[in-house]
Design a protein that fits this description.
The chain has one domain. Helices cover 11% and strands 34% of the residues. It contains 1 helix and 6 strands; from the N terminus they run αββββββ. The protein has a 6-stranded parallel barrel.
């Protein structure tokens, strides 16, 4: 379900820069474990998705199928207590909040 949401989000949201992210199948292999929230006030990171690979910007994510192409990897969890970072998805570049 989470993967479907992420893939559908990629189809609808675009912006000018990108940060390539790989979704891991195993928590131990990921750089970060993340939890998606619907409440902006709960978020450690506020990000947006893009389809453009041409430039890089913090908080603008583009998913890649290749781990070696990624700037970092994430594993998605169902419980916020299990996450390193809580993530909110926005459509507005002015709302981005991302620090590794």
């Amino acid at each position: 379900m989470k993967r479907i949401f992420l893939l559908l989000s990629l189809l609808f949201i675009t912006c000018a820069g990108a940060q390539e992210v790989f979704i891991e199948d195993w928590e131990t292999s990921a750089d970060y474990t993340i939890y998606y929230t619907s409440e902006e006030s709960e978020a450690d990171w506020i990000i947006m998705f893009t389809e453009w690979e041409s430039s890089v910007g913090d908080g603008k994510w583009m998913f890649t199928e290749w781990e070696n192409d990624a700037d970092f990897s994430v594993y998605i969890v169902d419980n916020p207590e299990d996450a390193d970072k809580i993530v909110y998805i926005t459509e507005w570049e002015s709302e981005l909040k991302f620090e590794e």
